[in-house]
Amino acid sequence: MMLITPLLGAESGFQALPVAFSLGKALLLIGVVLTLAIFIIPRLLEVIVRARLREILMLGGVIIIIGTAWLTSWLGLSLALGAFIAGLAISESPYRHQLFAEILPFKDVFNSLFFISVGMLLDLRFLGNHLLPVLLLGLGILLAKGLLGGLAVKLLSGSTRMALLVGVAISQIGEFSFVLARFGQDFRLLDADLYQGFLAITVLTMLFAPRLMAAAPHLAGRIPERLDSRLARDRGKTASEILATTGNHTIIVGFGLNGRYLARVLKSSSIPYCILELNPRTVREAQKEGEPICFGDASRLEILQMVNLSGARVLVITVTELPITRRIISVARLNHPRLHIIARTKFTMDVDELYRIGADQVIAEEFETATEIFARVLAEYDLPRNFIAAYIDTIRREGSPMLRQPQLPAVSVEKLRQLLAGSIVQNFLLLEDSPAAGKTLAQLDLRKRTGATIIAIVHNDRSTANPPADSVLTVGDLLVMMGTHRAMDSVEELLSPK
């Protein structure tokens, strides 16, 4: 559009030579961009990064952007297009993330200046005199863009919910349109009234857009399931072929890092599973790898039925979006009361709500991170492993609210002391290369060395209670022992292979 706009505004009408010249400049610009992206800018940034100074990196990035913008202006194109091309070139550099972090403050400042300038250009008297047409046109544009964008997503993915979310997200008039409108005004394509009308309508759509995007997930959740029935029909045959199980399987919702690791473990354990994912690219890649995956929104009953919800044993929700997790749990629990549901969430404050909805287990990233951190800190101070394990176990049993308190309650510490002082019964499997293999109980003298007592030995599926002192231990024996937590730690150190 930046290339065509000057031609549209030409007073002499359409001429082949200016069009050919503009296309030639465009091809030349593409060649320059490719050269910069592949050869010059990465090497230039590498030299800048070697200085190991943030200030030089920041100034270098700004100079590259301004220089590219100047180059496109010198070629007869716009500064805005040049800055855009510079961004594309920098995005190919391995240092793009650090450079983005350094330039981010400029982004915030320039964004503020941009929208302030838009507000200064808007004529409020014009808006007041033409309020009704502006409102109608603004709503019409929101509706038209949303419908067209949503229809395209619906045709590509089949998901009505996804179509609504995408349609709302792209319904507003974009910020780059301001640049294009100003460019068109310079070439007399827009007079003053049309330009003011365009500004007013654009600002209106930008004011409505954040509120519409906030309401979109709630609206998507109210879409009747029959609107997605075509998706279920279109995908049902493929899903049934992928599932290839009579039941007792695990349904994995989401195929990110957590979903991939879970699928790998289930596959190695010969446990049947299937995966639901809403990212078409992820689905295609996983299908090439032979994964039992299909495209579908797990918050829809028809999609869950497609992967044999009634025959499933476990449902694992690996996505972290709370509204989506709520809907999936509600639908699954209502239609399969005996299903074991494991949900993932980011914050501990959401755990109780998900339990109320119907989850059997909720794993909060915040809680798990906290327990792992303090466990490693205690281990660094050489506290007994049994003490650390008991502490973690107590916190898990008493619930995550403990971590939101300034300090652990005294009753928990007292329980820990009682737990550590009391005796427990624990099994220990004698592995190959264990120092105890081939020795008798008298030679091992476990009670004197650790304080633990062997109360039974299971050998070749036969149990011997109160084994005699001359009993010989062999690899594969299961030792049933009684003692304190500290004694069990000592047993593990003594009997484990070195």
From TrEMBL:
<keyword id="KW-0472">Membrane</keyword>
<dbReference type="GO" id="GO:0015297">
    <property type="term" value="F:antiporter activity"/>
</dbReference>
<comment type="similarity">
    <text>Belongs to the monovalent cation:proton antiporter 2 (CPA2) transporter (TC 2.A.37) family.</text>
</comment>
<dbReference type="Pfam" id="PF02080">
    <property type="entry name" value="TrkA_C"/>
</dbReference>
<dbReference type="InterPro" id="IPR036721">
    <property type="entry name" value="RCK_C_sf"/>
</dbReference>
<dbReference type="InterPro" id="IPR038770">
    <property type="entry name" value="Na+/solute_symporter_sf"/>
</dbReference>
<dbReference type="InterPro" id="IPR006037">
    <property type="entry name" value="RCK_C"/>
</dbReference>
<dbReference type="GO" id="GO:0016020">
    <property type="term" value="C:membrane"/>
</dbReference>
<dbReference type="Pfam" id="PF00999">
    <property type="entry name" value="Na_H_Exchanger"/>
</dbReference>
<feature type="transmembrane region" description="Helical">
    <location>
        <begin position="57"/>
        <end position="90"/>
    </location>
</feature>
<dbReference type="GO" id="GO:0006813">
    <property type="term" value="P:potassium ion transport"/>
</dbReference>
<feature type="transmembrane region" description="Helical">
    <location>
        <begin position="193"/>
        <end position="213"/>
    </location>
</feature>
<feature type="transmembrane region" description="Helical">
    <location>
        <begin position="162"/>
        <end position="181"/>
    </location>
</feature>
<keyword id="KW-1133">Transmembrane helix</keyword>
<dbReference type="InterPro" id="IPR036291">
    <property type="entry name" value="NAD(P)-bd_dom_sf"/>
</dbReference>
<keyword id="KW-0813">Transport</keyword>
<keyword id="KW-0812">Transmembrane</keyword>
<feature type="transmembrane region" description="Helical">
    <location>
        <begin position="110"/>
        <end position="127"/>
    </location>
</feature>
<protein>
    <recommendedName>
        <fullName>RCK C-terminal domain-containing protein</fullName>
    </recommendedName>
</protein>
<dbReference type="GO" id="GO:1902600">
    <property type="term" value="P:proton transmembrane transport"/>
</dbReference>
<feature type="transmembrane region" description="Helical">
    <location>
        <begin position="26"/>
        <end position="45"/>
    </location>
</feature>
<dbReference type="InterPro" id="IPR003148">
    <property type="entry name" value="RCK_N"/>
</dbReference>
<dbReference type="InterPro" id="IPR006153">
    <property type="entry name" value="Cation/H_exchanger_TM"/>
</dbReference>
<feature type="transmembrane region" description="Helical">
    <location>
        <begin position="134"/>
        <end position="156"/>
    </location>
</feature>
<feature type="domain" description="RCK C-terminal">
    <location>
        <begin position="411"/>
        <end position="497"/>
    </location>
</feature>
<dbReference type="Pfam" id="PF02254">
    <property type="entry name" value="TrkA_N"/>
</dbReference>
<dbReference type="GO" id="GO:0008324">
    <property type="term" value="F:monoatomic cation transmembrane transporter activity"/>
</dbReference>
